[in-house]
Specification:
It is a single chain. This protein is an alpha+beta fold. It has 6 helices and 20 strands. The strands form 4 sheets. Strands 1, 4, 5, 6, 7, 8 and 9 form a 7-stranded mixed beta sheet that branches. Strands 13, 14, 15, 16, 17 and 20 form a 6-stranded antiparallel beta sheet that branches. A hairpin with a 2-residue loop joins strand 14 and strand 15.
Amino acid sequence: MSKATAKSAPMPTFIEPCLATLAAKPPESTQWAHEIKFDGYRLQARIDNGKVQLLTRSGLDWTEKFGELAKEMLTLKVTSAIIDGEVVVEDEKGVSSFVELVSDLKARRSARMVFYAFDLLFLQDADTRALPLADRKRLLKRLFARRKKGGPLRFSDHAQGNGALILAESCNLGLEGIICKRLDKPYRSGRGVDWLKVKCIQTDEFVIGGYLDSSAIKDAIGALVVGFYEGKHLIYAGRVGTGFNRRVAGALWLQLHKLRRETSPFAKSVDKKKARGVVWVKPSLVAQVEYRAWTGDGLLRHASFKALRADKPASQVEDPR
């Protein structure tokens, strides 16, 4: 049994989130908890004496964007808490959809938004991060115990052990994958190996460094040219040529057209054949991209655009492999 305890402490203004490391397969040990990998926006809910803030994983205050969820947070029977979770919109099959979440945000619709709580970092004037995950989730579940089933605030439960079976079932249901977490470990900010992500579908963020005009539609995107950062160097990762309908292709073109630049933003020169026709842009926008695999020379295979991400600075987009 862990001897760690929650310690009385001032409430932090923001806690850098714990991030999962990509793994090829889930661990089988019963020391690991397996949760659904949601396809939404990571949010940190900070409740402090009747005031709620909803902060993105980089610390941006998005309370106004998710105002209805903030109001719901005030119904929790707690004076102070910091809850780690993710806001999603689920499709008709109950699968979280980042595309539909972005669509609802743009339209200022909130009726379908759900906050799944999966960790508790602070509770009633005590810092709980030193507690093992099993204890933190026990406290969190108790906090959410009387929530209305199917409501906008939900506890993200987990299964223990049988990682391969849980991943297979998740993939069969059309989910993105699972997050595997050590039940005996404290909460550690940053990327580490206490949390692992195992995917059914490869979905990651990439920086847009250029685009090609559509050959069929005027003032519209035909493909995106994307990459990721290694230190301060932007590394070329290939093209994203599908996932745009007419409306999305036009909207992206309008945004990227304003960011045009004369030279490539990539650290190494892009092959002349691959660079032909590319309009280079300032690398400030981040795209969520779904893809099948990586080629032997480090380029995306069968990549499809999902949506732009506004919760992560381009400079923080690193090699997802």
